[in-house]
Amino acid sequence: MTKATISLNVNGQTVETQAEPRELLIHVLREQLEITGPHIGCETSHCGACTVEIDGRSVKSCTIFAVQAQGSEITTIEGLGNPDKLHVLQEKFKEHHGLQCGFCTPGMITRAHRLLIENPNPTEEEVRFGISGNLCRCTGYQNIVKAILAAASELNETEVA
Amino acid sequence: MSVEAKTLEERQAALKGLGTSRKRVEDARFTQGKGNYVDDLKMPDMLFGDFVRSQHAHAYVKSIDTTEAMALPGVIAVLTAADLEPLNLHWMPTLAGDKQMVLADGKVLFQGQEVAFVIAEDRYIAADAVDLVKVEYEELPVLVDPFKAELPDAPILREDIADQKEGAHGPRRHPNHIFTWEQGDKAATESILESAAVVAEETVYYHRTHPCPLETCGAVASMDKVNGKLTLWGTFQAPHVVRTVASMLSGIAEHNIRVVSPDIGGGFGNKVGVYPGYICAIVASIVTGKPVKWVEDRMENLTSTAFARDYWMQGKIAATAEGKITGLWCHTTADHGAFDACADPTKYPAGFMSICTGSYDIPTAYLAVDGIYTNKAPGGVAYRCSFRVTEAAYFIERMIEVLAIKLDMDAAELRRINFIKKEQFPYQSALGWEYDSGDYHTAWDKALKAVDYPALREEQAARVEEFKAGKTRKLMGIGLSHFTEIVGAGPVKNCDILGMGMFDSCEIRIHPTGSAIARLGTISQGQGHATTFAQILASEIGISADDITIEEGDTDTAPYGLGTYGSRSTPVAGAATAMAGRKIRAKAQMIAAYMLEVHDNDVEWEVDRFVVKGAPERFKTMKEIAFASYTQAIPGIEPGLEAVSYYDPPNMTYPFGAYIAVMDIDVDTGVTEIRQFYALDDCGTRINPMIIEGQVHGGLTEALAIALGQEIAYDELGNVKTGSLMDFFIPTSWETPNYVTDFTETPSPHHPIGAKGVGESPNVGGVPAFSNAINDAFRAFGSTHTNMPHDHWRIWKTANDLGLHA
Amino acid sequence: MIPGRFDYHQPDSLTAALTLLNDLGDDARVIAGGHSLIPMMKLRLAMPEHLVDLKAISDLKHITVKDGSISIGAMTTQAELIGSAELALSAPIVKETALQIADPQIRYQGTIGGNVANGDPGNDMPALMQCLDAEFQLSGLDGQRTVKAREFYEAAYFTARDDLEILTEIVFPVCTGGYAYEKQKRKIGDYATAAAAVLLTRGADGSCSHASIALTNLADTPIYCEDASKALMNSGIDDASIAAAVKSCLEIIDPVDDNRGPAAFKKHAAGIVLKRAIDNAWSRA
Q1: Same domain, B628 and B714
Q2: DSSP secondary structure string for all residues of B485-524
Q3: Angle (nearest 5°) at CA B479 between B475 and B484
Q4: What is the rounded CA–CA span in Å between residue B150 and residue B406?
Q5: C268/B732 CB distance under 8 A
Q6: Which tops the pLDDT comparison, B5 or B252?
Q7: What's the pLDDT score for residue B1?
Q8: Does one domain contain both B113 and B254?
Q9: Element (H or E) spanning B668, and its range?
Q10: Three-state secondary-structure class, residue B604
């Protein structure tokens, strides 16, 4: 079966790759583009470990073909911060012990990132509802919620300042 | 301010040692998506393996035709049992003294069993080829109910050992019977039951579930034929054991095998065992000379790798009319599935189920466990608990509630009058354990006070009245749980896995400039070992935790250890770390004395330095000592500063806790709401309170899942009904409450730093708390016990059976 | 879980899409948000040889409120439904329902057209559409036709849509009366154990001037409860009339045993959920 040329903007960089139509975006990201932050947890779109952002939407990249993302702007955990300057969410997850094994973390933070863009000042309930497409087996979510609320509050303060 | 000018307290704090909520060193890479999990590994020419699996639960394999699959471009090979047989790898030993098919050898015994292994250039081609392998089956009658296993018309599952009257754990009375394991005094217990004022009886089923870490199991095997060296990366909770097993099975000398556990995305017991995928990846790499990756999908994970629980526990508990417990009797039917692949220490085929006398001073007890084969996946692992300890805790905490009903007593009070008293420790239990320490009354009283227990009971009674008056359709349940765990396996004299004593190890090297690396035989799966073990060491050797690297999981560099499960890392490897640290300190003392020109006994340790007794201004810091050890020729002392300790624990540790859940239950829909959850844990010395709290949150959420819906369910044909996360319940942030955590601190008297382990306590104590809350809600309406999982329809059924919908 | 091979097509017009479907015949499947189809393909329970993706057809993405009528393009996502201020005013039950579908990520991808056209009895939008008395626009190469939601569903995954047609638009009247979508589920992301969509309008005299009830996942199709709806209409809403309406609905449902529980339980839960939906809708009317 012929491969299609897929052009994407991933974390600010334009990339081109070849993929069969059936290749899932998560596999193209992880195996061809070596972006291994997003993970594969359930493969049935329940766990959210594979969450990336596509054109301003949080998407489970295990349930979209790479070819469908043709021409899209994609942000993964790798695009949110860098070792010299972490994103506030990354800082707050560390500070509030919002992760343990780390497997859900990239998807969780990527989802939280979009959530806070759409709702910069969420209540605890809104955070819990907003990340309900991301499963975590380790933390019981309590510290994740705390971290996201702390990030929101810091982002809001920065904005005011 | 110079270091020397700091106060003792400041120097202490700078170490970030025991008791500090130190931030985790692991988090930098995980929050940036730079973890290194097995599926992240990519190697040149790497091939990908995928399984053909049985859709039948019990069938003969008549033929396997791989022609079409082999013809598919990109397919390298298809392995079947016939290919593995010449290597004697078509079966493998289990951790429980049984053996398990690596690939179907003539028959299949559970749905999802591995039948053939396809090796292809990528995972897409491998999946296509799986579809092209044609397997012809002859279906056989299916056995899913362990109570029917020994009926005259029961199908014989394990024809390979049908004639063996003796198994790894003693006599077998039927081809579908694996073992009978007995503990305690049967005659004395039965005699007490006969004469007791009160006897409460119940059969408590702890259903089949699965650890389901977010990362599934997987491996990459790479056979370097030039150097004769096999490297195996994988999701291993016990990498050294995997190396030894791999060597024994493959015939490759152990020094030529390197096993690496990279970052692991949660384990919870799922990654203790050795799975056919690992063996097939190794064989495939040997056959092809290329690296081979195998990573299972979620459905494969839930249906073929190790399940947990599936214990039918029939109990009788005897007491005086005043509620003093006099005896406990338990017979357990243990459904082990098709192979006995329980991950238990060899001498304990039912794990530490004999901790089932719980937190109570029960003078006489008897336990028997019968292991049974059925057409289900093998396993029986300790899912976030020590071996079968959550089963034991659930059993006794349900039996206490059942007894309270029979006595018409408050269940909190019944617990209180039966707790082992503080002064009774070390306490010898009727089933053979020596509880090292505990102070149950203090913890219990603190918990009851924290939730204002009398007020809760008043509110509950008022709610019952309102319900009866038709003013509400919601009942309120108060779930009490006081658990005692037994963790830190364990003393080599009783505890081994495949003959390997269950010690653990730590090797420390202090660098010349005063930083250090420590390597351990354990492996973190999210517990934060790199953070906490450095804290233990910091307090022992006076080097800041920030200057200590912790490394685990590479068998070429780490000392031999039995791995991480059963909350054994802190009790065993943590102890090894402290002991190795003390060896470092002993040598450092001699170096310091030499440097200070005094006798060894004239210096004493103070936080981060040796000080001349009576002359506090004369000292050498550990940093100075480290430098000297590499730079000075000290008579009679070898250069360098290193130590290794292999720690054989003298006893288990016995963490305990008091949990209280308050739940509201809609009797019409079965929908439940967790209104409040209070968790008090006593894990002895607390190394990192932040991490302890995180462990408790996580364990409670797994307990919530298990109690309220998470199960591996089979239909009568042996089909798995809950094979994906649509039906296998994992709560989201929305269904999960906030928890209140608390603690008391009763250090273990035999552990070098008094720590006991905590990661699994919340699951062990949490499951009974949730289940007791549901059951308690119906107590006022005449219900004694209902089995988990307490999902909506089962709760509705309870209400319906009680006539609450009339 | 790896899907089988297929060819991917992304037509940029409806005509092009219909032509493709016509040319490719049975081997082609239309894909919208993909959250029903892709998991089926990964399990190889669906193995289409061609996928015709509708995402590039801009005509299929709109929410228009005009002259008392709402029309929604089939490719409008659940997230867009939730985010539409216009819709929140003109048919708030749509947002209430959409928020109970799946989870945030899936709502960004999942479309109203896919949800109603797939014929999955577990989907929430079909019952809502029956409750709203929506009409589905179906386009084929030969032209367009309109099918009422209440006549669209034949059996699980069988609908009035011909394989060569595309469901392009959903049209229903503005509804600003009392409303409720009540759904019992095991967790976020689950299909309904039982769910009910209810619309009630309070007339000038205080009685119910309009009523509409439909149920989700309680039979192999969504269930529009015509008799119960009519009975409530022009009646006072009281305990007796609600009980009668619930009873009438329960008589026409036919739930199946599954992991959510046995049929008897679902029937009971359906009654409770429905009563709550009626109470809630009436309190908002």
Answers
A1: no
A2: --BS---TTT-EETTEE--EEEEEEE-TTS-EEEEES---
A3: 170
A4: 33
A5: no
A6: B252
A7: 40
A8: yes
A9: none
A10: strand
Write out chain C residues lying below 8 Å of B713, CB-based.
259
> CB A1 to CB C7 under 8 A?
yes
Write the pLDDT tens digit of every residue in C214-268.
999 999 999 999 999 999 987 789 999 999 999 999 999 999 999 999 999 999 9
- C49 and C65 together in one domain: no
Overall size of chain A counted in residues:
161
Which 3-state string (H, E, C) describes B718-751? Answer: CCECCCCCCCCCCCCCCCCCCCEEEECCCCCCCC
Q: Hey, are the CB atoms on B670 and C269 less than 8 Å from each other?
A: yes
- Mean pLDDT, range B195-199, rounded to an integer: 98
B237 is an active site residue: yes
CATH classification at residue C244:
3.30.390.50
Segments of chain C scoring below 50 in pLDDT: none
At B547-573, the pLDDT tens digits run 999 999 999 999 999 998 888 999 999
Angle of helix B575-596 versus helix B622-631 axis, rounded to 10 = 70
Active-site annotation holds for B618: no
Length, in residues, of chain C: 285
Q: Is A44 on the interface with B (CB under 8 A)?
A: yes
Touching subunits for chain C (3+ Cβ pairs under 8 A) = A, B
Partners of residue B734 in chain A, C-beta under 8 Å: 128-129, 132
Q: Is the CB of residue A75 less than 8 Å away from at least one CB of chain B? A: no
**Four-way CATH pick for A88-160: 3.40.140.10, 1.10.3980.10, 1.10.150.120, 3.40.640.10:** 1.10.150.120
Which of B385, B495, B506, B683 is an active site residue? B385
Cross-chain residue pair A139–B212, CB shorter than 8 Å: no
Write the pLDDT tens digit of every residue in B4-63: 578 999 999 999 999 999 999 999 999 999 999 999 999 999 999 999 999 999 999 999
Secondary structure (3-state) at B292: strand
How many CB pairs below 8 Å do chains A and C form together?
81
Helix B761-777 to helix B689-708 angle, to the nearest 10 degrees? 40
The minimum CA-CA distance between B349 and chain C, rounded to whole Å, is 32
The two three-digit tokens of residue B504, written as one number: 């653990």
Range of the domain at C37: 7-53
What kind and span of H or E run contains B258?
A: strand B257-260
Longest dimension (CA), chain C: 62
Separation of alpha carbons B750 and C163, rounded Å: 73
CA A36/CA B41 separation, integer angstroms: 9
Find the catalytic residue in B237, B527, B535, B710. Answer: B237
* CB contact residues (below 8 A), chain A span 104-123, against chain B: 104-106, 109
- Contact flag C39-A63 (C-beta cutoff 8 Å): yes
User: Cβ contact (<8 Å) for B297 and A43?
Assistant: yes
Q: What is the mean pLDDT of chain B?
A: 96
Tokens 């089939």 sit on residue: C74
The CA-CA-CA angle for residues B676, B677, B683, to 5°, reads: 160
Q: Which residues of B touch C (CB under 8 A)?
A: 123-124, 126-128, 131, 297-299, 668-671, 709, 713, 721-722, 726-727, 729, 731-732, 734-735, 791-794, 796-797, 800, 805
Whether residue B572 contacts residue B514, with contact meaning beta carbons closer than 8 Å, is answered with no
Residue A1 pLDDT > 80: no
Owner of token pair 């306590």: B761
Residues ≥6 apart with Cβ < 8 Å to B156: B162, B175, B176
Contact call for B733 and A127, based on CB within 8 A: yes
Domain boundaries, chain A: 4-79, 88-160
Write down the catalytic residue from B22, B172, B309, B384: B384
CB burial of residue A16 (10 Å; 0-12, 13-18, 19+) = exposed
